[in-house]
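Tokenised fold entry reproduced for everyone:
>
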Amino acid sequence: MPRVSEAHLAARRQQILDAAARCFVRNGFHQTSMQDVIKEADLSVGAFYRYFKSKNELITAIAGEKISQATGLLDQLLALDPMPPIPEILKRLLELVDAAAEHDGTVRIAVQVWGEAVHDPEVGALVEEIYGRVRERAVLIAERARAAGQLPPDADVTGAGAAFFGLVQGYILQKVLLGGTDRRTYVSGVRTLLS
């Protein structure tokens, strides 16, 4: 029996994640069954369960993929010398959010995951670990901003990092729940608050 290539396995896994994302965006996390995802992915039950055993595993993979894009961008910006101003970093992150909203709507899944994290300890641990990576980088941004004089010398970088992270979550919530949230207006408002 021929071995399946790593590229084939990765493509099949992505096929499942894309199908799950479409289902979660369309029907919500709770209203989507594993059967719905299997049907959407156009796979047999056996082929599907080779990759994922539960909806929580699917959510973990989808969230991890999206957060990796955000942490990758933050790592690139942190590597710059000088580091861009905080509003510019926020603008770049929100461009990622808008791209995900326009491309496949997966931003909506983030809000569902946050709500689920309140009731499901497994999802709560996932959210803490995955989003903790973004908040850690936000604290590093605040440290660099303080060192560069963008923040006062006595600024609480942990608090500033948490607030920066909250600005991203706030934008996502407004975009999903209220609609019509404009990135330029939002970043302009943040610039006003920072001044």
